[in-house]
Amino acid sequence: MNVFLMGNPNVGKSALFSRLTGTNVTSSNYAGTTVEYTAGKMEWQDDVIDIIDVPGTYSLDPTNQAEEVAVEMISDADLIINVLDATNLERNLNLTLQLLEQDVPMIVALNFWDEVQHRGIEIDIDKLEEYLGVPVIPTSATKGNGIRNLIELFDYRKVTQYDSRTTEERWSEIGKIVEEVQAIDYDGHSWLDRLEDLSIKPLTGLPIAIFVLLLSFKIIRFIGEGLIGYVTEPFFEVVYRPVIMWLSELLGSQGFIHDLLIGQLVEGQVDFEQSFGLLTTGIFIPFAAVLPYIIAFYFILGFLEDTGYLPRLSVLSDNLMHKVGLHGFSIIPMILGFGCNVPAALAVRTLESRREKFIASTLMAISVPCMSQTAMIVGLLGSYSNKYIWYVFGTLAVVWIIAGFLLNKLLPGFSSDLLLEIPPLRIPNPGIVVKKLWIRMLSFLREAIPFMLAGVLIVNIFYFLGVFDLMAVILGPVLDKVFGLPQEAISALLMGFLRKDLAMGMLVPLDLTVKQSVIASVILTIYFPCVATFMVLIRELGFVDMLKATAVMLISTLVVGGFVNFAFQGGGFTPQSWLVLVGIVLLIRFLPNIVENEEVNSV
Ligand SMILES: Nc1nc2c(ncn2[C@@H]2O[C@H](COP(=O)(O)OP(=O)(O)OP(=O)(O)O)[C@@H](O)[C@H]2O)c(=O)[nH]1
Ligand SMILES: [Mg+2]
After folding, report:
1. N or C: fewer beta carbons within 10 Å in the chain?
2. Ligand 1 closest atom vs CA 145
3. Phi and psi of 119, rounded to 5°?
């Protein structure tokens, strides 16, 4: 038997799913958190049943891929739990009435019941049941209220016969229902309501956005550095090092097995960054260098997600982007990408057209370094000066803007306006934020450790077989002439396909100059996504579009890497290079308009 959780986006389906199954799935305060269905098991009356968390949809006429997934699945359901946001009854009922026309047993969960009471909304449940002809249960998924009553109805199998209505008939019926069952007694504006308005208006929204982003960045660095300095590095030095040194001696300090497990000793000592053995660098990078930043980033992200601030940031940036001729694609996939590019590549499913998906995925893949890579960039460049970190991120931001410009102008078609629902601001539930952090941390470890160890193994084999030397001879001249990098950096670029943090780690022994480190960090981000992201992108974009995206990546790498190499002199960008940059932006801004005007004239 299976039970489907269906409803509009952002109504708490995933939160309910977590409650019912005990499985943890991500829930956030914006539409489109779930883009693929998730199935979980639950014990019920000595039986094990399937609970399915369906992506949110506004209607049964899907407008994007996430919604299509939802609609295709209905006929398989034994019971649908239609989850409603009770604070938004009118909009939610549209889907409810459509679902009632399907011949599947259904019950209604009136979620957000806690907020209903807060906001002075009164809903007459008995009347609503009467109108809909199905059981209606008030619930609060985050607090866990009403869940038991819901479960008691799992054997509900009555199917109400409804004639299908036209859209107009449906809306007029909804109007009637809402008027009958709901009374609103609104008691003025709270400070959250006021903040909601301020965060969207450009004049106040922009300073708020800058403040939020800078503060987030500061906190992430503070937590990340704190964990590294006071927890992970001391642990590796004090506890792990003696064990490894003991093992090293046991293995005779050299030989094949020793080099594979421990790696090369530097002045008779293990160097966790440079030894490159499975048990040294292979464990040190993910646990000691990257994990602290993963924790820091996902803590802040999870918090921001649940406040409902991210969609506001999207709308704000969309407005700004429009001014420079860019069209709106959600900024949310980009922000998710700073954690890991894989979920970001999935999140573009909520965008409407293939064109928008292509632009958003490509931009994300070329200009957003994931947290694993960022942690290593911060480690590598932060030791010189913070300003070099900003050079890398600044360069990538410019790449994002210029590539966005170009793709938007060069690809046929136009992007539709960003239609994003803005949820209310809420104070996040700490339990849920911590739980989400935990899920993401585990999934980082599950993904990172195997790839990392495989990577270290392959690096050792490639060194042994001389593969890197061969590649250095073939591609070395390009690295040297275009990017000003030593030949040996090719090994890092090759391994970057497996994991970017591994690749960054391989740069450490090369003793690069600051300038070379900046260039390497930039091109390691741009040139290609890691294999995990690559696989998702092929699936999401299709093979042909992925080929196109790859072409964009390779061209951008050459152009940007070359530009930085030429423009970065004596510890910073030269004034001339700023002029060139401004020139390029102006050129792109105005050139395509001429083309468009000609088209208009010729029609
Ligand atoms: N106050 C309150 N918050 C809730 C309740 N249910 C869910 N939330 C919060 O509402 C937000 C949305 O919940 P999700 O479970 O992600 O919603 P969803 O329906 O799965 O959304 P999509 O996957 O985007 O379709 C999260 O921040 C939840 O913590 C509730 O009953 N009361
Ligand atoms: Mg969900």
Report:
1. C
2. 31
3. -90, 10
In this predicted complex, what is the ipTM?
0.99
Q: The tokens of 221 are what?
A: 């660095």
List ligand 1's pocket residues with C-beta within 6 A: 9-15, 27-29, 31-34, 55-56, 111-112, 114-115, 140-142, 306, 429, 432
- SS3 at position 47: strand
CB 353 within 8 A of CB 415: yes
Report how far residue 15's alpha carbon sits from residue 11's, in angstroms, rounded to the nearest whole number: 9
Residue 600 banded pLDDT, cuts 50, 70, 90: very low
* Beta-carbon count within 10 A of 282 CB: 27
Atom of ligand 1 nearest to the CA of 429: 29
DSSP 177-199: HHHHHEEE------HHHHHHHHH
Q: Which ligand is nearest to the CA of 10?
A: 1
Long-range CB contact pairs, 63-71, < 8 A, 24+: 63/352, 64/349, 64/350, 64/351, 64/352, 65/35, 65/349, 65/350, 66/32, 66/34, 66/35, 66/36, 66/349, 66/350, 69/35, 69/36, 69/37, 70/6, 70/37
Q: Sort 417 into a burial class: Cβ within 10 Å, 0-12 / 13-18 / 19+.
A: exposed
Closest by CA position to 432, among listed 548, 276, 306, 345: 306
* For the CA of 5, the nearest atom of ligand 1: 19
Which ligand 1 atom is the nearest neighbour of the CA of 53? 20
d(CA 549, CA 565): 24
For ligand 1, mutation pick of 33, 68, 83, 110 (most atoms within 8 Å of CB): 33
Of residues 221 and 601, the one with the higher pLDDT is 221
**Which DSSP letter does residue 55 get?**
P
Segments making up each domain of the chain, as ranges: 2-184, 200-602
In testing the pocket of ligand 1, which one of 4, 6, 21, 28 has its CB within 8 Å of the most ligand atoms? 28
Average pLDDT, the chain: 89
163 C-beta neighbours (distance < 10 Å), count: 6
Indicate whether this model's pTM tops 0.95.
no
CB atoms within 10 A of CB 376: 27
464-508 per-position pLDDT tens digit? 999 999 999 999 999 999 999 999 999 999 999 999 999 999 999
Could you tell me which of 27, 92, 100 has the C-alpha nearest to residue 57?
92
**How far does residue 587's CA lie from ligand 2's centre (Å)?**
43
Cα of 222 from ligand 2 centre, angstroms: 31
Q: How far is it, in rounded angstroms, from Cα 574 to Cα 588?
A: 22
Q: Is 2-184 a CATH 3.40.50.300 domain?
A: yes
SS3 134: coil
Q: What is the pLDDT of residues 512-539, one digit of tens each?
A: 999 999 999 999 999 999 999 999 999 9
Tell me the two tokens of residue 2.
Answer: 């299976």
* Candidate from 69, 73, 142, 346 with most ligand 1 atoms within 8 A of CB, to mutate: 142
Rounded to the nearest angstrom, the distance between the alpha carbon of 524 and the centre of ligand 1 is 37
Torsion of CA 163, 168, 174, 177, to 10 degrees: -80
User: Cα(21) to centroid of ligand 2, in Å?
Assistant: 14
